[in-house]
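A note on notation is needed here, since sequence and fold are reported together in a single record. The reader may check this reading against the record printed directly beneath this paragraph.
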Amino acid sequence: MLTIDAVGTPVFSDAIDIANARIRFANGCVVNATASRVSLRMERKMRIFEDDAYLSLDLQQKILTLIRKREGSGTPGQLPVQIEEQRLEQGDALKAEIEAFLECIRTGRPPTVSGEDGLAALETAMRITEQVNESLAARRLTEAGLDV
């Protein structure tokens, strides 16, 4: 990971109601993550951009939309794209995680996510939380007329 830039602010409460984090990795990948209690609708989405495709994963509705660039010029006024939509299997993520863990114990197979990767994810989350809290503290100092 190269950089993390995260901010958060209260909107309707004294706590942080909306937070945004931008994570840039050494390989050029950029992640923008937003968590909000003030959104007009409840949604859990992941969007992935590639050179010739865009994937939108709606974790709430369990729908994957894949938009790929098509060869050729297409119809005038329309993008030359192919759209595929797929319903995802309903399931219990926590149950699947526990079952995978137990399978690793039974078979000795290494887990899909290593302990090191889990620790790195936790450290990233903690860095984001720290920056969000720092941004809120700086905002409150500025509002109080104090220089940051």
Q: What stands out?
A: The domain at 1-40+92-148 is CATH 3.30.360.10 (Dihydrodipicolinate Reductase; domain 2). The chain has two domains: 1-40+92-148, 43-90. The chain has a mean pLDDT of 89. The two ends are 27 Å apart (CA to CA).
